[in-house]
């Protein structure tokens, strides 16, 4: 089998890349080790930057996001028992974010790919990458007991943190940077109305909490828990009781509880792999970087990687230019490290760190007080939250 670009991974980054390349007339195949239903079953982020929305529009899959998504002009910081609103729209000259679940983004991309009759291989086992340091890279996989091989011009590794793409790179060729946090997020998805019109980020002596949503009738809530905690230690009742303790009285009064559709614990880490190009193999999204979810940057960074990579491939095929390909890693990493810094800072500001004790809590509260009362500090927060521009 022959294609121009072999894409490993059918998550949102791989599917978005495939759709953008298809729109540009570039042949591609997507290879995914899981089933389509499994991919859709992943519960992930739901705050999209304008850059991500622009790329979805470019790919022709933004209609439902515009129709069903929730545009947000601000969010609230809760500390010392009171909420303070950050007006992103005002502070950034009219920018906003869109609340629309990653699962729905994936569903839209899947539907577009199926409608176009594009080749997607699900449940591909034993995927392996070969000769990506040459001009004739190959991808091998097994499907229904039959071995297959794809020859291609380029391989895009969009298969996540535990995928085969980065693992195929010699250890001596890649530098890894990582920070693991001493806590995780216990998340609950429930068909209950959100506690507020906008997201609420809570810093409390009991730990961090986040009140988010997927729609006007479906909410997503998170609690900071120790890194060794287990879902089995929690029930719906215990979750709602603890969330209520971390909210202000007005939010607590508005809180509607109900049975959880999903409950899980996600560890928090910061991770970057450098570089992101190895010959004809390119890493994108979680294959190259992870951010703690506090700053809502994971999916958005993956989208900007795909924006850079699709532009590089289009430039290569249309103009016979290597410039985009040669600068891909540096362009991505410049934006990635800024998002890593913001996510680390926001995580450090909002979470309870056991080793810092009461002094650390007071310092956080003092910084938050400065943050909400300084237009310059609020503007910096808002600019990073809505997303820094892509530089070409």
UniProtKB/TrEMBL annotation:
Keywords: FAD, Flavoprotein, Oxidoreductase. InterPro entries: FAD-bd, FAD/NAD-bd_sf, HB_mOase, RIFMO-like. GO terms for molecular function: 4-hydroxybenzoate 3-monooxygenase activity. Coiled coil: none annotated. Its EC number is 1.14.13.2. The keyword Metal-binding does not apply. It comes from the Bacteria. Residues 2-343 form the FAD-binding domain. This is 4-hydroxybenzoate 3-monooxygenase.
